[in-house]
Amino acid sequence: MLAPIAWRVPPRHYGPWERVVSLLTEGLVAAGVEVTLFATADSRTGARLSAVVPSAYEETPGMDAKVWEGLHLAHAFGRAAEFDLIHNHYDFLPLTYASLVDTPTVTTIHGFSSERILPAYRAFDGRARYVSVSDADRHPDLTYLATVHHGLDFAEFTFRPRAGGYLLFFGRIHPDKGAADAIRTARAAGRPLVLAGIVQDRAYFEREVEPHLGNEVRYVGPVGPPERDALLGGALGLLHLVHFDEPFGLSVVEAMACGTPVVAYSRGSMPELIEGGVSGFLAADEAQAVAAVGRLGTLDRAAVRAHAERFSVTRMVEAYLHAYRAVLAGAGGR
Question: Per-residue confidence at 332, pLDDT binned at 50, 70, 90?
Answer without folding.
Answer: very low
